[in-house]
Amino acid sequence: MPIRPENRWLYPIDWQQLSNAIRFERAGACCERCARPHLKTVAHLGDGCWWDGLNGHWRSDRGRRITRHAFFTLASVRTTYVVLACAHLDHDPGNNRHSNLAALCQRCHMLHDAAEHRWQRWWNSFRLCAIRDLFEDPRLTRQRLTRQMADRKLHPPLHL
């Protein structure tokens, strides 16, 4: 994953060499969670199971060899181009110990960072609301809130 310019100062100068050491020397150019190979196109079913073309069998989302007993349609098979990234396991870019770094494919990296991404979405929404509260004209705020209350009366939420 590319580093955002505003976060570049959080990473050490030799980050590229450190990342390469983790991804290629330690992990052997494969994801450390699911064993997907770097810079290869992989067929998968969307549930984490993927076809290991080198060894000729299916692998689970954890990289273990599995037998697919259930039938699936060819239309359900998708392909993904795998690119490894070096991930911080504790989400702290300043903690660059080898035990805190892992070579992860896009899928595993997104699953690992899911809670962090949920928090970031909440924080961005909260921050935008706070800025709007500070700088929005009170008359516009009153109109917006009145409109929202009228919409709720016209379309009450469904309770199951």
Structural description of this entry:
- The chain is α+β, with helices and mostly antiparallel strands and 160 residues long.
- Helix content is 36%, strand content 15%.
- It is flat, with a radius of gyration of 23 Å.
- The model has no long low-confidence stretch (mean pLDDT 86).
Give me the number of helical elements: 4
Radius of gyration over C-alpha positions, nearest whole angstrom: 23 Å
Q: What fraction strand? A: 15-25%
* Cα separation of the termini: 42 Å
Q: How many strands appear in the DSSP assignment?
A: 7
Shape call: flat
Give the structural class: alpha+beta
Count of discrete structural domains: 2
Percent helix range: 25-40%
Q: What does the main sheet amount to?
A: 3 strands, antiparallel
Q: Secondary-structure element sequence?
A: HEEEEEEEHHH
Low-confidence stretches: none
Please give the order of strands in the largest beta sheet: 2-3-4
* Average pLDDT, all residues: 86
